[in-house]
Amino acid sequence: MSDQFNSKVNVQLPLLPDSDSDSEFNKLIVIYNAIKQLQYGVDQFLDIPPTVKTAAYTIAITDRGNSIDTNANVTVPTEANSGFAYGATVVVTNVGGSNISLIAQAGVNLIMAATAQVSNKTIVPYGIATLRYLGNNNWIVAGTGVY
Fold this sequence. Notes:
The chain is 18% helix and 35% strand. The protein is of the alpha/beta class. It has helices spanning 22-44, 79-82; strands spanning 50-53, 57-58, 67-70, 74-76, 89-94, 100-104, 109-112, 121-135, 138-146. The chain folds into two domains: 19-48; 50-146, Jelly Rolls. The chain contains two helices and nine strands; from the N terminus they run H-E-E-E-E-H-E-E-E-E-E. The protein is elongated. Strands 1, 2, 3, 4, 5, 6, 7, 8 and 9 form a nine-stranded mixed sheet that branches.
């Protein structure tokens, strides 16, 4: 058994019906199209869609499940200002050549994974930070090039 994940949905379609019935053929077309849509839907969840920002930015609920690709500072808002719910995840990728900051709005705790250090964070050039919301304005921050 392979350890690699196969992103393709492999489904064998039934053979064409023996009859000349347009109804049977149309049913197969509907099934085929449904399978293709399912495959497209599954493949979408294998990537983290990027949103490019070139100026200072405050994350929003629409960033949930996405990556903010930026070369500018990113502010993490309070739950009251954003609507994030427990488990929400946002990735911040520094695509520039200088450090950027993750800045906590007043009342927000950015907690470094594995250290429990609570403070604003720095992301080095081409570093990546994953932020996971724990509720009560607490976010876990983890990643390479984050301190």
